[in-house]
Amino acid sequence: AERHSIVVIGGGAAGLSVASQLLLKLGTTADVAIVEPSEWHYYQPGWTLVGGGIMKAEETRKKMSSFMPKGATWIKAAVSAIDPDQNSLSLADGRQVGYDFLVVAPGLQIDFCCVKGLKEAVGHDGVSSIYDYEHCQATWEDVRAFKGGTAVFTQPKSGIKCGGAPQKIMWLAEDYWSRAAVRKDVTVKFCTGLGSMFAVPKYREALERLVRERGVDASFGHELVEVDGARKVATFEKADGSRVSLEYDLLHVVPRMGAPAFIKASPLACKATGFVEVDKQSLQHVAYPNVFACGDVASTPNSKTAAAVTAQAPVVVHNLIRQMEGKRGKAQYDGYASCPILTRRGELLLAEFKYGGVLAETFHAPPLLDQGKPQALFYYMKTIVFPFAYWNFMLHGRWFGTRTFFEPRYTE
Ligand code: FAD
Ligand code: UQ1
C-alpha cells in the first residue's frame, strides 16, 4: 500500500497551511501527502461578503491544484476511515494509505438535514444560506429583491464555524434595506438558539446596543427545528420544549454542523462531541502522539475560524517536527481566534480573544482603535487585506495573522 512520512487529511485553510509550513521547514524533499477530494478550494469567509453583495461567489473559490504546495503529493480522494493503531487510512475509492505522522484537518460537515424541511426549502422562495457555496449568491438575490415584510435570520445553539456570521449577514442586509429606503417596511428578526448576541462580554454589550439602535427583534433560546417552504413558516423550539411558528418573507438559515461522520466514527474522536481529541495547548492527540489536529475539526474550545488556524498551524508544525525527532515540542496554542463582525457596509467590529474569552486585541493600545466599536479600517482589512493574505500568503505557509510581524517563532 501507499505510504508517506506525513499525511494531512484535508486541503482546506488548516491542511494547506500546515503542509506548506512543514515543507518550508523540512525542505521540499520531505515526504508530505495531502488527501483531499475537492477540485476547488473555498475561501469561506468570503461567503458572508457574497451574501451582502460585496463579493462575487466565483471570487471565493480557486482550483485546488494551484494551491498544492511544491513537493507535496496530492491524493485526490476522500478519507472514509482512520485506523490509528495501524497508522493507516482507508479511502472512499478502496485504497489504503499508511503514515508515520498524521495531521487531521477535514473541517466541519454542514448538516442541512437536521432541520425538517430545510434541505428542500433552501435555495429558493426566499430561503438561503451563506454557509454553502451553492446558496450564498441566493442570499444576495433575496436581500436585493426584498421590498418589505418579515426577514428572519437564524443561528443554531450547537457550535458553528465563525459564530458571528449569522448576525453579520443580518447587519449587512439591514444596512442595505436602510440605504434602499425600504427599511420602514421590514421587520428584522434574529432567532438564535443561544442565550446572547456574543460570548465575550465586551463585544456582547456593543452588539446588544446595536440590536436596540437598529430595531432588531432578537429572540434568544429559539432553535430552528422546521421550515415549511411552501407556506413560508419557520418553527422554533424553546428551552422548555414549547414551539413557536413564524411567518417569514425572507429566511436566512444557518444549519447545524459538526465533525465529519468518518471522524466521529474513528478512535480519534472525543466520545461526547465527535471532534478530534487533542490537548488544547499542544494540539497533539491525547492517545496517539503521532497524530495532530488543526482547524475546525479539533476538540479545542476556541472559536472556529480561519484566524484561529493562523495561530494553530505553527504550533502543530513545531510540535510535529519535534515528535519526528523523538522529543516533545513546547509550542502552545493559546486559543486565539478572531471574528470580524460586519455591522454595515464600510464598518466592522473586530473581536479578538483567546481561551476563556480573554481579550487578545491587536489594536488595543491607545491611541490605536477601540475594537469594541465598528471601524472603517477593519472593514477594509476584511474585504481587501484578509482575502489577499489568505490566497497569497496563508495557504503558502507565510501568514500568521496578527503574529505575522510581531511574534517570535518557536526556536527551542
Ligand atoms: P475547511 O477550510 O472547511 O477545509 C476542510 C477541507 O477538508 C476541505 O477542502 C474539504 O474538501 C476537505 N475534506 C472534507 N472531508 C474530507 C475527507 N473525508 N477526506 C479528505 N478531505 C476532506 N473565519 C475567519 O477567520 N474569519 C471570518 O470572517 C470567517 N467567516 C466565515 C463565514 C462563513 C459563512 C463560513 C462558513 C466560515 C467562516 N470562517 C471565518 C471560518 C473559516 O472558513 C473556517 O474556520 C476555516 O475554513 C477552517 O479551516 P479547516 O481547514 O479546518 O476547514
Ligand atoms: C486573519 O489573519 C485572517 O486570515 C487571512 C482572516 O481571514 C479569514 C481573518 O478574518 C482575521 C481576523 C485574521 C486575523 C489577523 C489580524 C491582523 C487581526
Automatic annotation (TrEMBL):
InterPro entries: FAD/NAD-bd_sf (IPR036188), FAD/NAD-binding_dom (IPR023753), Sulphide_quinone_reductase (IPR015904)
Pfam families in the cross-refs: Pyr_redox_2
Domain FAD/NAD(P)-binding: 5-307
Gene Ontology annotations of biological process type: sulfide oxidation, using sulfide:quinone oxidoreductase
SUPFAM superfamilies: FAD/NAD(P)-binding domain
Gene Ontology molecular functions: FAD binding; quinone binding; sulfide:quinone oxidoreductase activity
Key word Oxidoreductase present: yes
Cofactor: FAD
Cellular-component GO terms for this entry: mitochondrion
Subcellular location(s) per record: Mitochondrion
Gene3D superfamilies: FAD/NAD(P)-binding domain
Signal peptide: none
Keyword entries, A-Z: FAD, Flavoprotein, Mitochondrion, Oxidoreductase, Quinone, Transit peptide
Matching PROSITE patterns: PROKAR_LIPOPROTEIN
Similarity comment: Belongs to the SQRD family.
PANTHER family per record: SULFIDE:QUINONE OXIDOREDUCTASE, SULFIDE:QUINONE OXIDOREDUCTASE, MITOCHONDRIAL
Protein name, per record: Sulfide:quinone oxidoreductase, mitochondrial
Protein source organism: Diacronema lutheri (Unicellular marine alga)
